[in-house]
Write a structure and sequence with these properties.
It is a single chain. The protein contains ten helices and no strands. By secondary structure, the chain is mainly α. It has two domains: 205 residues, no CATH class; 44 residues. Helix 1 crosses helix 7 and helix 3 packs across helix 8. The longest helix is centred in the middle third of the chain and has 39 residues. The chain is flat.
Length: 258
């Protein structure tokens, strides 16, 4: 099968268009949280026929970037583009019907490495959108309303094109890199599969580390210890253990607040 046959190109074009719409939800329009990796990646996986791969990739990226918020002048990596691109590369580039762990791990490694490109794109787009505000303020009083509407629509279009163009470039580049990966020795594939399994622990560790700045980590440990004791020592039902763990963590937070 060719690397970029007509069907694959059509899918990439559709994915880029959907990604452009999902990208608007980050800051430009709506903010209904559908742009979050845990939502966007499974949607793309479902579209490509491998929802499971989308869920796994979405969960990993959500854990890694869940606390990186676009507040003030801080421009985080575009986790939406990373989630969509990683899912598309993993599914479209897999030799079978479903993406395997090694391919998913390589796709995640590749797209997270492309994060600085998305950050540069965001900074450029924001600087261009700032010019729309100047253009609106320079209008005559009678034209201000028209220019304001035009500026809003133009800003939305610019944000859409940012995600659309980046996905249109990053996915084919990723598929090309995946062809090189497939030609590598099997030991590298095994290492990448192990890397994929460890990413979930890495994501959880990053969340705990970020939360620990506010002193919450001890209550995460309290919850974990409670669940372990409940299931291994007291032999309670796992569902009950989860409730006990949540209650222990909540009581710890309440105690600290007082």
């Amino acid at each position: 099968m060719d690397l970029l046959d007509a069907l694959t190109l059509q899918k990439i074009l559709l994915i880029a268009a959907v990604g452009g719409l999902l990208g608007l939800d980050r800051t430009a329009l709506g903010q209904f949280m559908i742009s979050e990796p845990i939502v966007a990646a499974p949607l793309i996986g479902w579209f490509l026929g491998d929802t499971a791969a989308g869920i796994v990739i979405g969960v990993v990226l959500e854990l890694i970037w869940v606390l990186d918020l676009p507040v003030g002048t801080f421009v985080p990596a575009d986790s939406t583009i990373a989630a969509i691109a990683a899912t598309a590369i993993a599914v479209l580039g897999s030799r079978g019907d479903h993406a395997i762990p090694g391919v998913m791990g390589f796709s995640l490694l590749l797209t997270t490495g492309m994060a600085p490109v998305t950050m540069l794109g965001d900074r450029f787009i924001r600087s261009q959108n700032a010019l729309l505000a100047v253009w609106t303020l320079d209008a005559e009083e009678a034209d201000t309303d028209k220019r304001l509407v035009t500026a809003h629509l133009a800003g939305l279009m610019v944000f859409f094109l940012k995600s659309f163009v980046l996905l249109l470039v990053l996915i084919p580049v990723g598929l090309g890199a995946l062809q090189l990966y497939n030609a590598m020795p099997g030991t590298l594939h095994a290492a990448m599969a192990l890397f994929m399994h460890l990413l979930l622990f890495l994501g959880a560790a990053l969340v705990i580390r970020k939360l620990s700045r506010d002193g919450v980590d001890r209550y995460v440990l309290i919850g974990a210890a409670s669940s372990i004791i409940g299931t291994l020592v007291l032999h309670v039902h796992p569902g009950i253990a989860v409730i006990i763990a949540a209650a222990a963590g909540w009581l710890g937070v309440r105690y600290r607040e007082r």
